[in-house]
Task: inverse folding
């Protein structure tokens, strides 16, 4: 939008430090001077204004409420703030988006329970901006993702990230894979379950052959993180993959896990060497008059036995001179 370009010079992003609780998600921009605050309701009205500057100011005010000693004033408006935030993160003006993402980070830190139900919708929008070309927007997005990573246990966050991996947007997918790599080391319980490991490998492995370089690099890193957290369970589940999928995974992880191929081969050999339980012998039919059953014959073979009706002797014909029956 034209307004987006007109204010580039006086709104140049400031580079700042800081970081989120999840390693690797850093880049919190330098905080601006706190705005003068009226009330939460007024700030909520501002975020829907026509002028981008008013919308941005509204989000900055809400963020200040959440970070300061007036956070309790936001509690009656939590549902409205959360739903409005999900909508306005797609604002056409980057300064509004940047202010909204700072507010998102503050909301997660102050009231994580209010955001938890919407994480599956919130995360893709934050991850989409995590590789933004604008320094301020990228820093705000990564700080918000870091707040999410620090606000929820990895065991509960990992399945959310797995669902976000269904996105067809390569920027979202690459950033989600990066987040999975950061979450995996603390999600050992989740990744010690065979079904979860199978699901992770099934979703991550295709990315290792993706045409997008960022997706490919992030997918390989995520596979290594899942391997480290899952340990033997990872190797066992990979050994069950079809040969073609096994070969693709070994190629992708060859540099970082040179012994993985030998581990997979050892698991496969052990499975083949395990004797299988013999099938139980077929049992004779309990019905004697079913018209014929298969029963074991002498010598271990099988033979067909006539039905019970065939075993009965035919009735004797009446003797000559006897009265007819």
Result:
């Amino acid at each position: 939008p034209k307004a987006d370009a007109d204010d580039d010079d006086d709104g140049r992003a400031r580079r700042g430090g800081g970081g989120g609780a999840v390693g690797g998600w850093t880049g919190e921009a330098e905080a601006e001077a706190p705005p003068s605050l009226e009330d939460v309701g007024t700030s909520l009205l501002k975020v829907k204004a026509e002028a981008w500057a008013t919308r941005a100011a509204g989000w900055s005010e809400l963020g200040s409420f959440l970070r300061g000693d007036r956070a309790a004033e936001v509690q009656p408006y939590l549902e409205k703030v959360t739903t409005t935030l999900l909508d306005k993160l797609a604002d056409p003006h980057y300064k509004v988006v940047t202010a909204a993402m700072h507010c998102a980070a503050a909301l997660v830190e102050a009231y994580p329970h209010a955001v938890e139900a919407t994480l599956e919708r919130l995360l893709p929008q934050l991850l989409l901006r995590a590789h933004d070309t604008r320094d301020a927007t990228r820093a705000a997005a990564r700080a918000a993702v870091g707040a999410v990573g620090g606000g929820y246990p990895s065991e509960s966050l990992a399945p959310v990230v797995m669902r976000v991996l269904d996105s067809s947007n390569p920027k979202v997918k690459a950033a989600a894979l990066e987040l999975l790599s950061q979450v995996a080391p603390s999600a050992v319980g989740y990744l010690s379950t065979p079904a979860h490991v199978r699901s992770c490998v099934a979703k991550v492995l295709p990315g290792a052959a993706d045409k997008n370089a960022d997706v490919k690099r992030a997918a390989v890193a995520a596979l290594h993180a899942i391997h480290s957290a899952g340990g033997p369970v990872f190797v066992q589940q990979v050994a069950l993959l079809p040969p073609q999928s096994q070969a693709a995974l070994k190629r992708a992880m060859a540099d970082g896990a040179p012994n993985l191929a030998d581990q997979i081969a050892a698991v496969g050999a052990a499975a083949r060497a395990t004797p299988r339980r013999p099938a139980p012998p077929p049992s004779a039919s309990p019905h004697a008059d079913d018209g014929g059953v298969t029963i074991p014959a002498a010598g271990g073979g099988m033979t067909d036995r006539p039905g019970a009706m065939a075993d009965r002797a035919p009735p004797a014909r009446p003797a000559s001179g006897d009265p007819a029956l």
